[in-house]
């Protein structure tokens, strides 16, 4: 009998062994897990970035809020410092706008002479308010005072009455002075008085019209310059009035052009110049029917000289403002 070798062949449909199947399963499960981990990491990064941006915004808001609070505190401190400086300024040493030396000069306006070799113990008594003797002329201050203006309604209890010192019969006793010239009389024991007659104000004198124009709706307003001892205004001072409105208001002045003549200056005080009368200016407001029942604001200033009329700290220095209303 012949023998033939035995050959073992594997069937093509035979299943793989168990180890190979486990490795395949592991590979298939690892791939989706890795993708999921990457997605989770990206989301975490986005969340962290979002949180960081949110924190940055919050920090910016807080910084802005702190900056605004710092500005507010700085403004409040500046306001407090400005109010404090009005009372006492530590930089200049001023109290209520004046230094200690300035306050001392105002409170004690006297001069103490320095000691000399002849009299080393010389002293001077000082009075806070020294008064000159009754027959002495008060000396004007080194810096001339600036006069104010005053408005007077003539239909009130004013000096243009029958017993007024401005009446022509009384003024006839006074002197006729040189027009446009100062009446200087420093060395004269008795000071003369220049005439200012009531009739100089003509239509606003109260002589032709006792109502001073109020009945006809064209009132007269009297303006006078306050008395200042020793004042000699330079130039050619006069009173000028304007209405504070869009259209101009017609006016008449008495004396002509509202002039304050130099002959009434200087003034020497009540004791040396007892009969002195200051010059007046009358302003007649020529209202029309369109102006009735409307309050009109008028401002008058002294102009044409070195007298001040624009000091914002003193509304009456060289000017005056008043309101007039004529009712039908």
From TrEMBL:
Q: Which GO biological process annotations does it have?
A: intracellular potassium ion homeostasis; intracellular sodium ion homeostasis; potassium ion import across plasma membrane; sodium ion export across plasma membrane
User: What Pfam families does the record tag this protein with?
Assistant: Na_K-ATPase
InterPro entries in alphabetical order: Na/K_ATPase_sub_beta, Na/K_ATPase_sub_beta_sf
Alphabetized Gene3D superfamilies for the sequence: 1.20.5.170, Na, k-atpase alpha subunit
Extract one GO molecular function annotation from the record: ATPase activator activity
**Biased segments, Pro residues type:** 129-144
Annotated Basic and acidic residues bias: 40-84
| Entry keyword rRNA-binding | no
Q: What main location does UniProt list?
A: membrane
* Ranges annotated as biased composition (Polar residues): 1-39
Give the UniProt entry's GO cellular component terms: sodium:potassium-exchanging ATPase complex
Compositionally biased region (Low complexity): 118-128
Membrane topology value: Single-pass type II membrane protein
Q: Where is the stretch described as Disordered?
A: 1-151
Identify its protein family.
Answer: Belongs to the X(+)/potassium ATPases subunit beta family.
- Protein's UniProt name: Sodium/potassium-transporting ATPase subunit beta-3
């Amino acid at each position: 009998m012949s023998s033939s070798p035995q050959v073992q062949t594997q069937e093509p449909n035979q299943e793989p062994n168990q180890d190979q199947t486990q490795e395949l399963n592991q590979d298939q499960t690892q791939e989706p897990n890795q993708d999921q981990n990457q997605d989770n990491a990206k989301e975490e990064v986005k969340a962290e970035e979002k949180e960081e941006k949110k924190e940055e915004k919050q920090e910016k808001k807080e910084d802005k809020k702190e900056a605004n609070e710092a500005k507010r505190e700085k403004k409040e401190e500046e306001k407090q410092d400005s109010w404090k400086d009005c009372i006492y300024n530590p930089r200049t040493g001023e109290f209520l706008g004046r230094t200690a030396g300035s306050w001392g000069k105002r409170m004690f306006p006297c001069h103490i002479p320095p000691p000399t070799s002849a009299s080393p113990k010389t002293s001077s008594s000082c009075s806070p308010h020294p008064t000159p003797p009754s027959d002495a002329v008060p000396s004007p201050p080194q810096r001339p005072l600036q006069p104010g203006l005053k408005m007077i309604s003539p239909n009130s209890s004013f000096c243009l009455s029958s017993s007024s010192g401005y009446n022509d019969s009384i003024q006839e006793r006074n002197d006729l002075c040189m027009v446009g010239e100062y009446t200087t009389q420093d060395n004269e024991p008795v000071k003369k008085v220049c005439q200012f007659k009531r009739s100089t104000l003509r239509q606003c004198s109260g002589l032709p019209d006792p109502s001073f124009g109020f009945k006809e709706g064209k009132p007269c307003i009297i303006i006078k310059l306050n008395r200042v001892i020793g004042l000699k205004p330079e130039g050619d001072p006069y009173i000028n009035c304007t209405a504070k409105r869009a259209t101009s208001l017609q006016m008449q002045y008495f004396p002509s052009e509202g002039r304050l003549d130099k002959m009434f200056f200087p003034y020497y005080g009540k004791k040396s110049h007892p009969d002195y009368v200051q010059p007046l200016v009358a302003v007649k407001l020529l209202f029309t029917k369109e102006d009735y029942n409307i309050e009109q604001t008028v401002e008058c200033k002294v102009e044409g000289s070195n007298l001040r009329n624009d000091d914002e700290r003193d509304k009456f220095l060289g000017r005056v403002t008043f309101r007039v209303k004529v009712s039908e």
